[in-house]
Amino acid sequence: MARSAIEWTQSTWNPVTGCSKVSPGCRHCYAERMAKRLQAMGQANYVAGFQVALHDNTLDLPLSWKKPQTIFVNSMSDLFHKDVPDEFLTRVFDVMRRSSWHTFQVLTKRAARLEEIARRLDWPPNVWMGVSVESASYVHRLQHLRSVPAAVRFVSFEPLLEPLGAVDLRSIDWAIVGGESGPRARPMQESWVIEIRDRCLAARVPFFFKQWGGTNKKKAGRLLDGRTWDELPSLVANHQGRSPGSAGEAVEV
After folding, report:
1. How far is CA 209 from CA 2, 108, 112, 224, in A?
2. pLDDT tens track for 21-68
3. Whether 179 contacts 130, CB under 8 Å
4. CA distance linking residue 15 with residue 76, whole number of Å
5. Which domain, by its residues, includes 161?
6. Nearest to residue 247, comparing CAs of 67, 36, 66?
């Protein structure tokens, strides 16, 4: 088992792999690069590269992980992609409901489909729902998210590509900010991050600064105003009887 390298989670679970680009934040998709690498290595779940694929063989995996985990769902896809059938979505949510000792983090750019189908899904208290917002043109995704009956609603401003102005954080429980990393990474300005951080402080929304990004993510680091910002929602895994920041077994699939 490998520990996840994503700073705000512990494990990943990919019942779906593959995706397609829907907005500027997708341009240099890390999952697409990784999928092509895994395809070249002969990994069975990536024989189709980055085409959307459903994996029945991985659906029940969280049920076998007995140690409580914070699990990022579909780090290699988007659960609300149009090519993921409603029936398969229902099955994913059923597994998350039955895996009640875990906390599941779901993140999408398909906020309109999320809102449309949300009323037909069973939302257990261990499922967090988030949307990605990379620029001012996509702040409307937050309005879709606000209609979803998830225990925790969060937003990932990553990769943050421009200042967002007076972003409305009503009914949002957590905010993540990060710069783009990897080849051809687009730069992020400190003032854009501080603007969001200050709005989070004013609205009492926990703020998590993931990275500055760039072509050398490790060298750029995670410090903002001389400190790390690792705030998490107060509901984080409390039902699991452990502290938010505790480490556990992490699984990459």
Report:
1. 23, 19, 26, 8
2. 999 999 999 999 999 999 999 999 999 999 999 999 999 999 999 999
3. no
4. 9
5. 11-240
6. 67
Examine residue 213 and state whether it is found in any structural domain, yes or no. yes
Task: Find the farthest-apart pair of alpha carbons in the chain and give their distance in angstroms, rounded.
Answer: 49
The answer to whether residue 6 is domain-embedded is no
pLDDT value of residue 234: 83
Residue 173, sorted as left (phi over 0), alpha (psi -120 to 50) or beta, turns out to be alpha
Let me know: does 72 contact 6? Beta carbons within 8 Å: yes
Spatial contact of 131 and 111, defined as CB atoms under 8 Å apart: yes
Residues in the chain: 253
Look at residue 93 and tell me if it is in a domain: yes
**Counted domains in the chain:** 1
* Cβ neighbours of 230 (radius 10 Å): 15
- Tokens encoding 172: 């949002």
pLDDT of residue 4: 81
CA 200 from centroid of its chain's CA atoms: 18
Instruction: Name the pLDDT band for 224 (thresholds 50, 70, 90).
Output: very high
In a domain, 101, yes or no: yes
pLDDT tens, residue by residue, 148-183: 999 999 999 999 999 999 999 999 999 999 999 999
Residue 1 has pLDDT above 60, yes or no: no
Computed on alpha carbons and rounded to an integer, the radius of gyration of the chain in Å comes to: 17
d(CA 225, CA 190): 9
What span, in angstroms and rounded, lies between the C-alpha atoms of 250 and 75?
Answer: 13
